[in-house]
Structure formats: C-alpha cells, structure tokens
Amino acid sequence: MEHGPQLSRPLTQHHPYVPGKQPEISDGTVKLNTNENPYPPSPQIKNAILDELESLRLYPNSSSNDLRAGIAKLHRLKASQVIVGNGSDDLLNLCTRCFSDEKLKVGMLEPSYSLYEVVASLQGSSLIRIPFDDDAFSITPKSIVDSGANLFFITSPHAPSGREYSMDCFRQILSEFQGLVVIDEAYADFAGQNALSLLDDYPNLIITRTMSKSYSLAGLRVGYALSSPEIISILDQAREVYNVDRLAQAAALASLNDRNYFEETLALIVKERRKFAMVLDEWGWKSCPSGANFIFTRPIDFKGESGPEVASDLYDYLSSRNVLTRYFPQHELTSSYVRISIGNSRDMDILLERIIEWKTQEQP
Ligand SMILES: Cc1ncc(COP(=O)(O)O)c(C=O)c1O
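Above: query sequence and pyridoxal-5'-phosphate SMILES. Below: predicted holo structure tokens.
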C-alpha cells in the first residue's frame, strides 16, 4: 500500500497459523486430525450453561475467580498460581506478549506445535529453533539452557510425536536456564507424568493446560496456566479484561468438578490408544510410545516400503475415504509419519478397515 494505513512491522512478515480441517461432522467423516475428544463433554455442563443464560446481559467475572479456585483446588495450588484463558492458545500468546520482543527471543524445539512460531512472530521477536537430538525426539537440556532465548516453549507430551519427557530432564533445564520455560501440557492428562510437582521449586516455570482435549471442550475455548504468583500477576496485567465468557467459565467449572465422567472417558481413550498401538506394533509400523490422545506412526505399504511418499499416500487415501488424519511433510522427522487422533471404538474400527484396504490395495 503506497497511501493509507501501514501494517505494523511484525505483521509485514507474519505467517498465520493453519489449523487442521474442520468439516461439518454430520457428513459421516471420521475426524482424527485435530486431537479432539471423541466423547461428548460432561452432561453436567448443560444445567451450568442454562443457569447462566439470564446473566448473559452482565459482564463475566473478569478474573474467572470461581474457575481459578476450582483449578487451584484440583492441583493443590493457590488461586494466585492460576490464570484462565480463552483456550491455552490465549495463554501461549500472553506469554510472548509479556516476555518477548525485538530483543528478547523465543525458543522452541523444531518440530513442535507451530503456534509458538506464530505468537512469537506477532510479537516481532526472533525465534530460536533447537533441533531434536534424534528421530525419537530426544532433548539435550544443554541445548535449551544455551539457546539464548528469554522464553522457551517445550511441549510435553510432545506434539506431534506423543513422547513424554522425564522430570529429571526438566529439572536440569529449569535450574540452569536464565529465562522462563513454558511446558505446554495440552496432552498431560493422557500421560503417565506431568510437571506440576516442579512448580514449588522453579519460579521460572509456566505450565499450560487445555480443557479442549481431556475435558472435550474444544468448542468452548478454555485453557489455563500455572506458575508462581509473581508470573501469574504479570500475565494478568496483559490479558484481555473479559477473556473468558460467562458460559465458558460456568461450563468449564462444572466439567472440572465431574471427576467420575472425566476419569471414565479418559480411561476409554487410553484403552483405545493401547489397542491401536498393539495393532501397529503387530504390523511392524514404527510408532512413538504416546502419552497423548494420538499416535504418530510410520506406515508401511503393501510393497513393504515406508517414507514420505508412503505416508503422504496413506494420508490422501484416508482423506478421500472421509477419514481425516494429519500429515506434516515440512520436516524430515515427521514426513514419513502420520498423526492419528484416538477416536471411539467405532471410529477406530473404521480407521483400521480403511488402513487394511490401503495396505492390501483392495478398493471398497
Ligand atoms: C501442543 C498444543 N498446545 C496447545 C493447543 C491449543 O489448545 P487450545 O484449544 O486450548 O487453544 C494444542 C491444540 O491442538 C496443542 O496441540
């Protein structure tokens, strides 16, 4: 544009986030591409939402106080250690807004959740990409400690591989790194371990969680971050005043309090994950042991071959038969794999049928 308003400098070089496909779900599509939960949210949210309807003329509680208190109780923390956001993406964005700029750099492991790059670029800060050590997505703490970043994002369990990292690894990073570490635990409820116990010892730790996956509330947009009261109060200064609406606050709290439903649906997903992993093992498909609600696997075709072309072919084959998965061709650690979200048993049966057709090249 020669005349008229100018774009802000960060926007001139910005590449927005590209979400996975979101088709209408009534068309019979088996949707295993964006790690949503196959079960409905807790039935308790219905009344919580209905009770809130008359109050919609009023602004919501700006700090989501009741929900903060509920989250604090669940994790045995103080409410001052919790902040709630419009999805955890909102909190990842807040972290870069508060702790990065043209001089304060953002770090991430490559490949990881690509939103980190997007929120860093919106803030106009440069991004330091640290490669993984090997194709099992191993991390060397020193590479993060020496990265020079002021804010470092680590996804654990990692996406797209599903790999979990040990608390020892995090301790080494947190005790030596000069900046802030965000451990994005979007998938931690499906994992065997999490970093909550590190909060007491490391004030430079922020843990982000989402209610989109394990609570089946992706459409409601609620996430939260846990950290020291000092960091939380900084994040609080920069967030939108009413960042979580009334319906979201009420429904998220009702859902959080329905522990039985949460545990039951979680167990079903973990069971399906185990069954699917066993089938992939029997086929000899290499998969990362997953602590998440998805499996990252390297397909082998009917000729016994694997690689980027094979993975891309399976992805296309499944898509054309209304089974959506995710394929990441951009990176050599991901291009021979597909990432498949864990669905309910019906979804997984259809998925397996389609994969077997592909493996044997029979057409339906
Ligand atoms: C690693 C990771 N972090 C955060 C998110 C975003 O979650 P939310 O729906 O809470 O914004 C996702 C969503 O897929 C994710 O994969």
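Residues 35, 87-89, 113, 155, 159, 184, 186, 210, 212, 218, 223 surround pyridoxal-5'-phosphate (CB under 6 Å).
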